[in-house]
Amino acid sequence: ILTITVNEVNVPPVLDPIGPHSINTGQQLAFTATAADPDRPLQNLTFTLDPGAPNGAAISAAGAFRWTPPVGHVPATNHITVRVTANGTPSQSDAETFIVVVTETPRILSVIAEAGGNMRITWASVPGKTYQLRYTTALESGSWMEVGGTVTATQTTTFVVDQTGGHGQRFYRVQQVD
Predict the structure, then answer these.
(1) Got the DSSP string for 6-22?
(2) What is the C-alpha separation between 78 and 62, in angstroms, rounded?
(3) 3-state class of 140 per DSSP?
(4) Phi-psi category of 141—alpha, beta or left, where left has phi over 0 and alpha has psi -120 to 50?
(5) What pLDDT does residue 166 have?
(6) Secondary structure letter of residue 170 according to DSSP
């Protein structure tokens, strides 16, 4: 009589790539980490953050990651490690360290009247990031119009000339679009 015994080989789960992120201070970064485990029967997967994650960063056991860098936390490059662990015997895990670059929220530095009633609006920017300048004539309207197209910053300050022709009061805001 020949007896064959097959023992299961417990392999670690595989965390799907997360990749780098870039956000502004005060902006929330949110995503759901995912992983696969080829073991049968299926094992429970639990997500955690390794030590060294920035204050306030959290991940649920199901992989929902959330972090809002506080105002003043700029510029900063944060290395965050997400770990997924399977509940097999022995317990196995996989981890990925990803980078989150936190930059200053764009803010208008100056609005200067130029010849012909045009306005030169300058703001703090991050080279390589793209911005959109908008205006409204009444803050309570909630309606903002674009001033030209998007602008990709090449320096730490960027400006656009709004060709108003001297027509009325305008309020401006700038938003990073990437």
Answers:
(1) -PPPP---EEPP---EE
(2) 22
(3) helix
(4) alpha
(5) 65
(6) -
- Three-class SS of residue 141? helix
Across 22-45, b (16+ Cβ under 10 Å) vs e yields bbbbeeebeeebebebebeeebeb
pTM of the model: 0.70
Hey, how many other C-beta atoms are within 10 angstroms of the C-beta on 103?
19
Q: Concatenate the DSSP letters of all residues of 106-127 into one string.
A: P-EEEEEE-GGG-EEEEEE--T
At residue 6, the pLDDT reads 67
Both structure tokens of 10: 């417990």
Across-strand partners of 23? 102
Are 65 and 59 a contacting pair, CB within 8 Å?
yes
Per residue in 105-121, pLDDT tens? 888 999 998 888 889 99
Distance of CA 94 to the CA centre of its chain: 23
Mean pLDDT, residues 65-71 taken together: 92
